[in-house]
Design goal:
The complex is a heterodimer.
Chain A (H helix, E strand, L loop, with lengths): L1 H11 L11 H10 L2 H18 L1 H8 L37 H37 L1 H16 L2 H12 L3 H27 L3 H9 L3 H37 L11 H8 L7 H29 L1 H27 L22
Chain B lengths: L5 E15 L7 E16 L3 E5 L6 H8 L7 E6 L2 E2 L5 H10 E4 L13 H11 L5 H14 L16 H13 L5 E5 L7 H18 L2 E6 L2 H7 L2 E6 L2 E7 H6 L4 H8 L6 H6 L2 E2 L26 H5 L5 E2 L8 E2 L17 E2 L5
Parallel strand pairs in B: 3-8, 3-9, 6-7, 7-8
Antiparallel strand pairs in B: 1-2, 1-4, 4-5, 9-10, 10-13, 11-14, 12-13
Helix pairs in contact in B: 3-4, 3-5, 4-5, 5-6
Chain lengths: 354, 348
């Protein structure tokens, strides 16, 4: 539907006016804003980001630091976490009497930081390797493609365990490990796209102008594969967040008392019978955040490829047409079926056989 | 043609593409003999038309001359300097002199770049103009090829096929080259648009003294634009020479067959003309026929044709620059007497 209106807008402007052509990105953005799920995902992601940024404000507001324990107010007499809402703990406390809300908010900072940073590095590295392998081909491609395959086939938890044992768990180590296992997926997609894009006539045209291989790669090929890279990048963020949570859960990542969703969950599993909030809230935070990124990735993919939109639109149109036909048939045959007033249409539940 | 009049000389050019087996070692199992010993010259300010069926090596030859693919053997000489298989850097000065216009007006323009950036790319690559100066030059070029300079910021998708081909022409023109290789520049366009683009190319030739290597399979288009014509068949030249003798008195049976297939606008001429219908397909360039490559399909073929490769030479009574590679060239007014090869097209 948006396509039609765009064309109309353009044909309305006279030839005298200098019209700025709408770029692919502007069109994509407009289509994305029509996608309710994608807009909701963007809002959720922005909300989580803002909450993570202002986490210290919450801490000073409640007077609860991220690592401060409150043995008197934060624990029951049996030494168990207190439930949400008691003694000024909105989401309750954890096993040693720390404010769960504050810890989840601080955990979001780690998750988003790790997720976004590793995605940026991995995407840049993956694009570079994929472009070089795909464009140059030959033995360069042979070596790089086998390396990509090897990384994708590697059991990453084993490597992470070994590295953590050797160097001790730390944030930089997590970032290195996640990046190392993320770029290969990008590189493989980019390599495949580059293999097909480099056969395009406009690449040959650029070569006939004397453009260098680097210029062709970054000015001619890269803009044409930004779409799949953007989608893949959006989907890498939640994968990295889960990866970080997994490593922290296994004790290889962020170490106590620094909060991370992974290490909160690892501790919480010991208390799932006594304190449901302890495991539910951090798990929900992880779920909502990763879900929002995944849905946004899907939304961007649909917006980049208007064909899928048209498929949905035509399905909707067909559904509407069917409904109209049914309504007409009902109205036409209403005299015959007068004794069966059926306001809900065919979707009405069947009469109960009581 | 004296040496000063020659812009490009191609000598015995050979381009074979190796066929590698799909196994891990990738041994070479054969050669596609796309271009096999072609010599030609392009004169200054002249248009050389290159015609032939699909797959006869026209485009490969063009890419070899433009230095886009390495040559197997033979030489390409531009204004007296050998430009065969130069490195990218060494080729750079000649890139300014030799530009290409491509067949597909959709595939040859990057869909993600604005027109101003596409036409300005030559200036950027050769670091010849930047900023406001580049924009002014690009807009001048757009005006020159009949585009609205106001459309500088549009994307290729917002133009029609003919306009897109004009963008391609503007890009080729940017560096003021001496030679433009046109690889079927109009075959993807509507007939009415073809005429516009051909007239534009002709005007540009007059204004800038350009030379063209004009590749097409439409013989009438080639006749309209060319000064000289070369007919290729399966990687070899069948016949070449100035336009008029080749069109009016073709000596090679293949040229005769091609010309007899051109539709005529005059219904009487169409009803009475003789059509030579070739049987069979073009043989594979992987395993071309022995002797004359045209002999399996030639209505005049004899024993000798399958044994001996005919040299490309001027035949008796022909002008010295009208060359034909045939043992039994067609005489003026000769009809092909083989039954089943001749038909009238009056009913068609």
């Amino acid at each position: 539907m948006s396509i039609v209106t765009e064309l109309e807008v353009q044909s309305d402007t006279g030839p005298e006016q200098a019209i700025e052509g709408r770029s692919q990105w502007q069109l994509t953005w407009r289509r994305l804003l029509h996608d309710k799920v994608a807009v909701a995902s963007i809002i959720v992601i922005l909300l989580v980001t803002v909450l993570a940024i202002i986490a210290p404000a919450f801490a000073s507001l409640t007077g609860h630091g991220a690592t401060a324990t409150f043995p008197k107010t934060g624990e029951t007499s049996a030494g168990l976490p207190v439930p949400p809402g008691t003694h000024g703990f909105p989401l309750g406390t954890d096993s040693v009497g720390r404010d769960l809300l504050i810890r989840i908010l601080y955990g979001a900072r780690i998750s988003l930081f790790v997720g976004v940073l590793t995605t940026l590095i991995a995407t840049a590295a993956g694009v570079a390797v994929g472009l070089i392998a795909g464009y140059f081909g030959g033995w360069v491609d042979g070596v790089l493609a086998r390396f990509i395959d090897a990384v994708l086939a590697f059991p990453y938890v084993v490597l992470a365990l070994a590295l953590a044992a050797r160097f001790g768990p730390s944030l930089p180590l997590i970032i290195i490990v996640i990046t190392f296992f993320s770029w290969a997926a990008v590189a493989r997609i980019v390599r495949g796209q580059t293999l097909s894009l480099k056969e395009k006539e406009y690449v040959e045209a650029a070569r006939s102008l004397g453009a260098s291989p680097w210029r062709i790669m970054f000015f001619d090929i890269l803009p044409n594969l930004l779409a799949p890279v953007l989608v893949l990048g959006t989907l890498l963020v939640p994968a990295a967040i889960v990866f970080e949570a997994t490593l922290s859960y296994l004790g290889l990542g962020i170490q106590e008392p620094t909060p991370s969703w992974g290490n909160i969950l690892a501790e919480a599993q010991n208390f799932y019978q006594e304190a449901w909030w302890y495991i539910v809230f951090p798990a929900a935070a992880l779920l909502i955040t990763t879900l929002a990124f995944n849905l946004l990735g899907d939304g961007i993919r649909d917006a980049m490829d208007p064909r899928t939109e048209r498929i949905f639109a035509s399905q909707r149109a067909r559904k509407r047409a069917r409904k109209r036909k049914r309504t007409q048939a009902r109205e036409g045959g209403s005299a015959a079926s007068q004794d069966h007033p059926d306001p809900a249409g065919p979707a009405a539940p069947p009469p109960t056989a009581s | 043609m004296s040496d000063d009049d020659v812009l490009v000389r191609v000598d015995n050019l050979v381009k074979h593409f190796p066929i590698r087996s799909s196994s891990l070692l990738g041994r070479t199992v054969g050669q596609v003999q796309a271009v096999d010993g072609v010599s030609l010259t392009i004169g200054r300010g002249q248009t050389l038309g290159l015609v032939g069926e699909t797959g006869c090596g026209k485009s490969t030859l063009a890419r070899c001359i433009a230095g886009l693919i390495p040559v197997t053997s033979g030489t390409v000489t531009f204004e007296g300097s050998n430009i065969t298989n130069l490195s990218r850097r060494a080729m750079q000065p000649y890139r300014r002199e030799i530009q290409m216009i491509f067949q597909d007006p959709y595939g040859s323009l990057n869909p993600r770049r604005r027109v101003g950036s596409i036409i300005g790319e030559p200036f950027a690559v050769h670091k010849m103009a930047s900023g406001a100066e580049r924009k002014r030059k690009v807009q001048d070029l757009m005006a020159r090829v009949g585009l609205n300079p106001e459309h500088y910021n549009r994307f290729p998708a917002e133009f029609s096929g003919g306009q897109r081909q004009r963008i391609g022409v503007a890009r080729a023109l940017a560096l003021q080259p001496k030679l433009i290789i046109c690889d079927e520049p109009v075959s993807a366009l509507d007939v009415s648009i073809q005429a516009q683009v051909l007239n534009l190319l002709a005007d540009l030739q007059d204004d800038f003294g350009l030379s063209y290597l004009f590749i097409a399979h439409d013989l009438e288009v080639v006749r309209h634009v060319s000064h000289a014509v070369t007919v290729m068949y399966l990687g070899r030249i069948a016949e070449s020479g100035p336009k008029d003798p080749v069109y009016d008195a073709p000596r090679h049976p293949y040229t005769n067959a091609l010309l007899s297939a051109v539709p005529s606008a005059d219904p009487e001429a169409a009803a009475t003309r003789q059509r030579i219908i070739l049987t069979g397909d073009v043989p594979s360039p992987i395993n071309p026929p022995s002797g004359c490559r045209f002999h399996p399909r030639c209505p005049k073929a004899q024993e000798l044709c399958s044994q001996q490769d005919p040299p490309l030479e001027a035949k008796v009574n022909d002008p010295p620059d009208h060359l034909t590679a045939c043992h039994f060239p067609v005489a003026q007014g000769e009809t092909f007497a083989r039954a089943g090869r001749v038909s009238r097209t009056g009913t068609a």
